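Cross-check.
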Amino acid sequence: MSEKKCYGNPPPHVDLSRLSGFLIVIEGPDSSGRSTQTRMLSNWLEQRGYAVVQTGLLRSPIVGPALEAAKQGNVLSPRTMSLFYATDFYDQLENTIVPALRAGYIVLADRYVYTLQARDLVRGADPGWVESLYSMAIVPDAVFFLMASSRNLVERTLTANQLLDYWESGMDIGISRNWFESFIRYQRRLRVEFKNLQEKYGFEIVDANRSVNAIQKGLRAHVETVLHDTRSVLG
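Predicted model, tokenized:
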């Protein structure tokens, strides 16, 4: 098993020494291929005999639907959105992530608290407040950030959806009235925040400008190393 810790104090009534599974996070902006890579990793691990649970943003059955509905009006304040997403995360932490880790599963997270922090920081949140908001988050065994160019992101987004997303384009913070220009500038700002978070938390950068299969091959090699090295240390 892997020895778990939190960024601050653990959640109430959670014994970290009993969490024997692995928490592996795939981070990256929309259209970086993150969800596809997470799904492929999950299938590969299950074929190798591992029990896998997937988590991600907006998957709390209590909070997720309400947040999705609230976002449709394009009127959420940055603080309200932050607290909505934090509630969604902690509901999943308590009811999905911790029970799965306790049962020895591999938890694959399609985004984690780093995306939430980066979004908050771009919108002017106090760094200390953001850090404290997610202090009870469990430290992952590995974090892989899919880094793609802004141009690739917008091309993939338009190919898949024909439209840019209001929030993922940063239209709520008034960067530009032009959606395309706002998207490019917003993604660049996110990239800066992710770079700072990468230096702070030490996650692995993965080149997401490559083909789907090339990215997956690299991720599998990294995950194998994580699983093997942890077991070797534990004897």
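The chain has a mean pLDDT of 89. The longest strand covers residues 22-27. Passed to J.P. for a second look.
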